[in-house]
Write a structure and sequence with these properties.
Number of strands: 8
Helix content: 10-25%
Structural class: alpha+beta
Strand content: 35-45%
Number of helices: 4
Strand order of the largest sheet: 1-7-6-5-8-2-3-4
Shape: globular
Distance between the termini: 13 Å
Radius of gyration: 16 Å
Length: 170
């Protein structure tokens, strides 16, 4: 449960540094490469729709955590993220704006300008004690799956107003 032995954590605003470099355009231009693969259109039966509950700080060192919860349940999943991604997610949750586009705003703009639609974000599993995710994009009538960190997938899905799914097993 989020908050550990001390109970729920207080919501705190997390501010991060500058944006990271993400080259989504290369993945979109080359839908057949290793970063992108064709997938079926709808979410799998092994997934559940989730919503972002909060962004908070946890542990002795105040590491940023995004807490997601099943939409039709009380089961929650805390995901440790970087400070920049936490700030991007919190900015969208709080309806705060930036005078200039941040990385996820830029990616949304690139998708919109390229006539590419984000269908959904999926937190698909765990590899080496790290959660993994994919972005399901609609490109020229095909669904393309692009590897992503869960934090980036969540931040982009929130900006695009698209659903977020997580593997039931998580």
């Amino acid at each position: 449960p989020a908050g550990g032995r001390d109970g729920p954590l207080a919501l705190r605003r997390v501010r991060g540094g500058g944006p990271q470099a993400l080259l989504l355009a290369a993945a979109l231009a080359s839908a057949g490469n290793a970063a992108a693969a064709l997938r079926p259109s709808g979410p799998s039966a092994d997934t559940v729709e989730v919503e972002v509950v909060t962004v908070t700080l946890a542990g002795r060192f105040g590491s940023p955590v995004v807490v997601i919860r099943e939409k039709r349940s009380t089961r929650a999943l805390p995901i440790y993220v970087g400070p920049n991604e936490a700030a991007a997610i919190w900015q969208r949750l709080s309806r705060d704006t930036s005078p200039r586009p941040l990385t996820h705003d830029l990616i949304k703009g690139l998708l919109d300008a390229s006539d590419v639609a984000l269908e959904r974000a999926e937190i698909t599993g765990e590899r080496n004690r790290t959660y993994v995710a994919t972005l399901q994009l609609r490109v020229r009538g095909r669904t393309v799956s692009v590897d992503s960190r869960p934090s980036d997938a969540i931040a982009l899905a929130l900006r695009c107003g698209r659903p977020i799914f997580a593997a039931r097993a998580l």
